[in-house]
Design brief:
The structure is a homodimer.
Chain A (H helix, E strand, L loop, with lengths): L3 H6 L20 H10 L2 H6 L1 H14 L4 E3 L6 H5 L4 E4 L3 E4 L6 H6 L3 H6 L2 H13 L5 E7 L1 H10 L7 H9 L1 H25 L3 E6 L7 H22 L5 E5 L3 H5 L9 E3 L6 H8 L4 E3 L10 H15 L4 E2 L12 H15 L3
Parallel strand pairs in A: 1-4, 4-5, 5-6, 6-7, 7-8, 8-9
Antiparallel strand pairs in A: 2-3
Helix pairs in contact in A: 2-4, 4-8, 9-11, 10-11, 11-12, 15-16
């Protein structure tokens, strides 16, 4: 049975434009909160294939999206490379021993061994695929090497990225060594996700905008493209979505290129601009401002505007960033319904 | 005596391109840390004209910049409107009673009364002007109404701006009422800064990028332009610098217009792009990535690249955001020296 979401990613005709939401398996859903409370910590939930599969499937059933996205966290990768990940309440992720030197990096587990430790992710994928309807797609994902490296170097989230950027300007070799080691793990990790059953890959470069445009290709995009090239050579039928957040200036400067299928447009980048610059080469995904979900009227206004710009082809509806925890579920349902309504053909 | 910085803002010929740095009076300077420790809290320092004047002048003497910028904080405005500002160590600014309704807003002090309470700022300006060399300029500043409103509504800094954006999409009237009341105070506040002796005005819209492009004009830029129009009508000889951070997409969409002199380019916006789109209308200020200051080589590379793009006219060197606390002072001096070296004529 053909999956409308996969077809849309590959630029094929579909009866309507599919839709999903970043962070759709999340705290705005009471059903998620229930499973989350049973699981223990956030990381416990990531490690529990049965429960992770359950929350992955919830938004498909409850909100009616066309694709599920694997419930996990980008930071399980450095965690299984041997960095000690924890989530401190109200403070976010922490690594107790950030990378400061080549010796620190050399101590980390790399390649096949690190990718092999992420068994709970592959088990989760297999469980989801047993239960997901045939016409719905499952999206697997990873963080971009740059985004992962920011946490590995800073030891936590950061406003200024000053530790990794000090490294960028004073010790670029070490930063490249970190990025290369992470890239190797990510390639094998995504390959194992595909072998476990995911239908589509999304690469999140959440902190793309932390790099100045003249350095973005060198320190992030080329590693993302290396991953895409590796996967496309082996699995040409699996669509790849690139989502670098906050980079209209990079689009303007022609820094978006390479072998992938879908470009994820963040909400700060006008869709008409993205279409003009990238629409011929890539299917575009996005890009409603997530806070519009607080209002049904503001949601409909944006969905209609996106439909006007994109028409019913080479487009996937989505938010331009993750759905927020205090959005009413009925507004999320309204968004999905409106996307289907405005784009349905005939 | 003519001030090279003021001349450059007005697009006149200057013997070299002037330079200053956002947050140049700040924690990277041991001399600042000494005065800060003597003053007590950060807010105590803002309230002490003698000490605020002293730290304002330090970077002119120590680093050699061409303009001083008033030492103060954008949040003294809502503080004097009757919101109770405090700075919690490690957490940043807090207002104990954020605005949630028209009644909350009506309780705040507005217009002339609020502007009249900021006497410590005007006294600081007078002290600085007594001591500043005649060929150096003093920049006064304010936060943009939108940026100020984010703190007044959220009660603190925010990653998602979800409370103010919920207001934007569900109760835009209230948000506009807040913005209008703040705009009135800012107009009078900047007028009093000018009457006290500042040579140039900078308006910081630090959180410009929190608004989606299609809403930016309505909720921020038009209020900034209202302030600029008011000041330009009364003080046409005082240059105005607009610095909305993070908005290459807005530049692309033609959302930058109006009666001001200098456009501040953040480091995420390529200078060549800003020049192409705005260089004929506005003098451009910026835009070295502040983290380049960790390396003298990376600093020189960027200064030379900016000189290559801009030439020695209609440009002011600056960082694309504030200098970070752990930058070596000698690197800041190197930056200033290099800007003067590459741009000096004849």
């Amino acid at each position: 049975m053909s999956k409308i979401f996969v077809d849309a990613c590959l630029g094929k005709e579909t009866p309507y434009t599919p839709v999903w939401m970043m962070r759709q398996a999340g705290r705005y859903l009471p059903e998620y909160m229930k499973v989350r409370a049973e699981a223990g910590s956030f990381l416990d939930l990531c490690h529990d294939p049965e429960k992770a599969a359950e929350v992955t499937l919830q938004p498909v059933d409850i909100v009616g999206v066309d694709a599920a996205i694997l419930f996990s966290d980008i930071l399980v990768i450095p965690d299984e490379m041997g960095m000690d990940l924890s989530f401190v309440k109200g403070e976010g992720p922490k690594f107790s021993d950030p990378i400061t030197s080549q010796e620190d990096l050399d101590r980390l587990i790399g390649g096949e061994e690190a990718a092999g430790r992420l068994t709970y992710v592959y088990d989760t994928i297999k469980l989801i695929k047993e239960r997901l309807a045939d016409d719905k797609a499952l999206i697997g994902f990873t963080g971009a090497p740059w985004t992962l490296a920011t946490y590995m170097i800073e030891g936590q989230g950061t406003k200024t990225y000053n530790i990794c950027k000090k490294m960028m300007y004073t010790n670029p070799e070490l930063l490249h060594n970190i990025l290369a080691k992470v890239t190797e793990v990510v390639k094998l990790y995504m390959e194992k996700q595909i072998e476990s059953g995911i239908d589509v890959v999304q690469i999140f470069d959440s902190w793309a905008a932390a790099i100045e445009p003249s350095k973005y290709d060198e320190f992030s995009w080329k590693y993302m493209i290396e991953i895409a090239d590796y996967l496309k050579a082996k699995y040409p039928h699996i669509p790849i979505i690139m989502f670098p957040k906050g980079i209209p200036a990079f689009i303007e400067r022609g820094l978006v290129y390479g072998n992938f299928d879908v470009f994820g447009v963040d909400w700060g980048t006008p869709m008409a601009f993205a279409k003009e610059k990238l629409g011929d080469k890539y299917v575009l995904q996005g890009n409603m401002e997530p806070c519009r979900l607080y209002s049904k009227e503001a949601t409909t206004e944006c969905v209609e505007a996106l439909q006007e710009i994109m028409g019913s082809k080479r487009h996937i509806f989505n938010l331009g960033h993750g759905i927020l925890p205090d959005v009413p579920v009925e507004n999320a349902k309204h968004f999905v319904k409106e996307c289907h309504r405005v784009s349905r053909k005939g």
